[in-house]
Amino acid sequence: MRDQLWKDSGNARFQRLHKMQDTKGASQDAVEGTDCRFRRSTTLQRQTCAWRITFWQRILIMGCTPKTIRTVSTFALALGLASAALTPAWAQAAGQAEAASTSRPAQSPVWGIVSQEIEADADIRFGVLANGMRYALKRNTNPSGEAAIRFTVKVGNREETDAESGAAHFIEHMAFNGTTNIPEGQLLPMLERLGLAFGADTNAETSLDYTTYKLSLPNTDEATVDTGLMVIREMAGEMTIAPEAVERERGILLSEAQVRNDPQRRRAASYFGAALPGSRIGQRINANVERIREISANELREFYEGYYRPERSTLAIVGDFDVDAMEKKIRAQFGDWNGKGEARDIYIGPVPDGAQPLIATFVDPAIPEFIELQRLSEWTPSQNTVAESREQFLRLIASIALSNRINALSRSADAPTLGGQASEQPLFRTAQSFGLMAIAKDGQWRDTLALAEQELRRADQYGFTASEIAEAKANIETALANAAAQAAGRTSVAIAESLVQDSLNNGIPTSPETNLALYRMIAPTVTPQAVSAAFSEAWDGGPSVVHISTKSPIEGGQATIAAALSESAKVAVSAPVEAAAVEFAYSDWGVPGKVVADDRIADLGIRTVRFENGLQLNLKRTEFEPGKVGFSMRVGSGLSTFPANKPGLKEMLPIAMQVDGLEAHDPDELRRVLAGRAVSQSLSPTNGALVASGGTTPDDLKLQLDLLAARLTATAWRAETQAQWAGVAPVLVKNITSSPVPVFINAMNAVLGGGDTRLGLPDASRLEDITLSDLQAAVASQLGEGPISLGLVGDFDEDAAIEAVASTLGTLPSRGERREQGAEIRPLSFVADTSPKILTHSGAADQGALAVSWQTDDAGDLRDNIVRDLLAAAIGLRLTETLREEQGATYSPEAFSYAQRTFDGFGHITAFATVPMQSMDDVANVIRSIASEFSNTAISEDLLERARNPIRERYERATTQNSAWLGLVAMAQSDSEVLDRRRNRMAVLESVTPADIRSAARKYLADTPGVEIRVIPETGAN
C-alpha cells in the first residue's frame, strides 16, 4: 500500500530490486529481457518526449522536490488534454481556431459534465449510478486477457483535522484488514490464489487529495472479475475497522512513517508550509506519529463514513472484457451502496494573494540545494474548453523553452547550477503554481538564485525566440501524433489511471486522435509572441514564494535571501539570441553492409540476420503496440570486465552518456537536432554487455540507428561532462546515503560479492572519486571494438529495417561474432565471512534496514532457478503474514532470489525488512525461523500456488508485451540457451512440487545462518 506522495513503496521497491539484474538470465524476467530500471512517469509523460531532461536530473529531481508529489506534470496538463478536445465538427475544422466562439453548448455524456466544446472519447463507456458514483469502462487488449481496476475517492490527507491527522492513510490500510464479507487476513490470500501479487497487482495509494485502490486482474474470467468487483465494493462501503485490527495495523503505519521520514519529504513539508501558509497541505505531508499512536477505531470509522461516499467516487475498469456485461455487474454490485451518516466537506485551503513574495528556507545536510521561485494562484477544475487548452499549451511551451535555457547554462565548468525545471503544476486541487526550480551545486545557492531570477526576468521582459518555440512545438506535435498512431497499444493500467485523474479534475477524457486534432487546430496561433505573453501573464511580475534548501543554515536567513534577490534584480538582462540552425552530422555511413545469413526461429517468430561485419540483427514483428518499435543493442562485455575495485563506474555511465553529446554535437545542439523525433540515447551497463535500449517509431528508426552507430564511434568524452559530474556526484552521494533503502539497494550485491564494485556501490562516497577518464578507460574499447547484437521488436517492416541497419551499424568495421557466454572474465565469489556487514545512512535515528542472504547458485540450471524463485516468493508471503500482519514489525518485508549467468556460481536468496536498529535482532530471528520452516516442513499446496500464480501470470503476460521480448530477441543469436529457457519455463514452473521447495530450502538455507547486512544510522555506528 502506497502513499502517492512518495511512490517508492516497500513492495514495488523490491519487485524492482529483484529484477535489477543482467538480462542474461538473472531471473525469469531477465530471460524475457524486461527493462527493470526505475521508471516514474505518468501516463501523460509517457505520451510525450517534448521536454527532455537528462538522466541525472531525473535522479536528482525525482523524490527531492515538491513537484514530484504533484500528481500531474507540466506537460500532463497540455498533452494529456484531459480538459480539452474537439467535437467531430471541430476536428474537421482543424486550423480554424476562431470557430471556438461559435460552438454550440451541449450536455456531455461524461458524468453529467456540461461542456461547450468537448466530445469525449467515444470508445469509453461513461456512467453515473443513482447513488452518484461515476464509472468509466473501456475494452482494451493490452495486455490481452487482463483488466485494470482503479477506484478513487475524493479524500486525502488534507481532509483530516488536526485530531485526525493520518486518518486517510490509516483507512487505506484498513481496507485490507477486514470488511463485512472478507474477514481480516483473508483478502490477500484470496487474491493471491487468483494470481494477484501483493504490491504489484494489489495496492492502494493515499495522496493529499484522493485515495485510490488498485487491482490488476490477470484474467477476465467471471470468477476473477466478480471477486475483483466484490473486493472494491467491500472497500468502498463495508470496512469493519475493528479495534483489534486497528491495533495490529498501527505498528505497520508507524514503521511506514519511520521509513518515509526522509529529507525529501521534510523539504516538501517546508515548501508547502511556506507557499500555502495557513493551509493543511504542508502540515499533512509528514506523518504525525503521535496521532497514529493515539487515533481510535471510532475516529477512523467516523472519517471513513464521512468521506467514503458514492457521490465522491469513481470506478474505472479497462481491459479485455465485454463492456455491456461489465456495466451490468457494476450496477448490480454498487447500486445499493449508500453513504452512512452525514457527508463531510471537502477541504478548501487558503491561497496567498502573492502581493509580496514569501521567503523561506529548509536546512538538511542530506538535501540537494534547491532554489524554487514559484507564482501561486487559485486552482480551478477543468473548464473543458479549447481556449483553456490553448493557454495551457502556451504556458507549457514557455516552460520547455525556459527549462532548455537553464539546462544549457549548466554545461559550463563554472556554472553554479546543475540544471532546472520550469513548469506549471496543479497542487492537490488546492492551488496552481508556475515558475522554476533549479538545483545548485553545493554551496552555490546564491549564484543559482541570481541565475534563476535573471532568466525568469529575461523571459518576462524579452520573451522567447522563434527557434525555441519551433523546437518545443515540434516535440509536442510528434508526441501527440505518435500517441494517436499508437493509441491501440496503450496499456489498460495507463488508461485506467488517466480516467480516475480526469474524474478528480472534472475533466472530460478524450482520445489521442482528438488531442492531436486540437493541437493542430491551435498550433498556427502558438507564436513566439503569444507564448511570451502567456508567460508574462502567468508569472504576473514575480514569484509569490521563494524557497531555498541548503545543507547548512544561511546566515541572516530571509533577509540575506531578500538582499540577494534585490542585488540580482539590479543586473540588466539582454534579449535572448536566436540559435543557429544545426544539421545532423551522422546520417551518411557509406556503403551499406552485406547480409551473409538470414534465417527464422519459427516457433518464437524471430528472424535472425547476420552481416558480413559480424553484426547480429534479430527481429520480431508484433502488433501488440501499433506504431512502436523497441530496440536493444548489446555491445562489449559490460560490467564483467570493469575493474573490481573502482566503484562508481556502473552508476556514472548512464548519467555521463546523457549529458556528453557526440563529437560533432554538444548536448544542446543534439537536443535541437532531435526536436520532433522519437529517439533516445541511453546506455547502461549490465553484467555481460553495455546495453542501449528504448523505443522509437518506424519513421524514426533510421535516425535511432544513426544515434546507435554514433554512440559506438563518436562518443565525445567532453571536459564539460567531467565538470558536470563533479557537481552531480556529491548530490548523488547525499541522495543515496540519506536513507537506508537506497544504501542497501546500491550496496547489496557488491557486499555479497566480497566488495566487488562491478556489482554495486558499497560506499557511496566513492562516487566523488571517479572521473570521466576512469569511465572512458573501462568503456571506450567496448564501444569501439566490442561485438554487437541488435534486437528490434514491434511494428515495422522487416525488410525496411534490415536495409536501415545495413546502412548504419552494418557499415562499421568487423568486430567479430558476439557470444554472451564463454568470455574470459574475472571470477566473482560470494563473501566468505558470514559476520554481519554494517552499512550506515545519514537519515533519522529510528530508520534502518536488515537483510539476511543465503548463498545459492547462478541461473544456469533453469529448473533450479525457478524453484528458487518460488522458494523466495513463498518466504516473502510468510514474512508478510508474520512480520507485517501478525507482529506489525515492518510494512515492507520482502524476499527475492537473485541469479545471473555471467559469473559462475553467484546467486543468493535474500529476505529484507525496514526496521529500526533496536528491532534488528528480533526480526533477524524471525527471518531465520521462517527459513527453517521451509527446510524442516513441506509447504502447503495453497502456499505454493499463491507463490506460483503471480509468476505464472507474469509469464503469460510476457507473451504479448514487446518489452518482455526485447532482451530475448537481442540475444537470439548470441545466446541460444535463452530461447530454450523461454520455451520451457512455464512447463518447469508448473511441475514444481512442495517437495522440490523443501529440497531447495535444505540445500541452500539449512545449516547456515546466512549473511546479515544491516543499514544503521551513522550515530549508531559510533
List the helices and strands and how they pair.
Layout lengths: L1 E2 L6 H10 L8 H5 L10 H5 L7 H7 L12 H7 L7 H5 L13 E2 L6 E2 L9 E4 L5 E6 L7 E7 L13 H8 L12 H7 L8 E5 L4 E7 L4 H16 L5 H18 L2 H13 L4 H6 L3 H6 L2 H11 L5 E7 L3 H12 L23 E6 L5 E10 L7 H24 L7 E11 L3 E10 L4 H18 L3 H20 L6 H13 L7 H11 L5 H12 L5 E6 L6 H13 L25 E7 L4 E6 L4 E6 L7 E7 L13 H12 L6 H7 L10 E2 L4 E7 L4 H13 L5 H19 L2 H13 L19 H14 L2 E7 L3 H9 L30 E5 L7 E7 L6 H25 L7 E6 L7 E8 L5 H17 L4 H18 L3 H9 L6 H15 L2 H11 L6 E7 L5
Parallel strand pairs: 1-7, 5-9, 10-14, 17-21, 22-26
Antiparallel strand pairs: 2-3, 4-5, 6-8, 6-9, 7-8, 11-13, 11-14, 12-13, 15-16, 16-17, 18-20, 18-21, 19-20, 23-25, 23-26, 24-25
Can you give me a brief rundown of this structure?
With 1022 residues, the chain is α+β, with helices and mostly antiparallel strands. It has four domains: 16-123 and 147-211 and 220-334, Metalloenzyme, LuxS/M16 peptidase-like (Cytochrome Bc1 Complex, Chain A, domain 1); 358-477 and 517-569, Metalloenzyme, LuxS/M16 peptidase-like (Cytochrome Bc1 Complex, Chain A, domain 1); 595-811, Metalloenzyme, LuxS/M16 peptidase-like (Cytochrome Bc1 Complex, Chain A, domain 1, 2-Layer Sandwich), CATH 3.30.830; 837-1021, Cytochrome Bc1 Complex, Chain A, domain 1 (2-Layer Sandwich), CATH 3.30.830.10.
Describe the global form.
Answer: globular
Strand arrangement across the biggest beta sheet: 1-7-8-6-9-5-4
Mean pLDDT: 89
CATH topology-level name of the largest domain: Cytochrome Bc1 Complex, Chain A, domain 1
Reading off the top of the CATH hierarchy, the class of the largest domain is best stated as Alpha Beta
Fraction of residues in β-strands: 15-25%
Give a count of the beta strands, DSSP E runs of length 2 or more.
26
End-to-end CA span: 35 Å
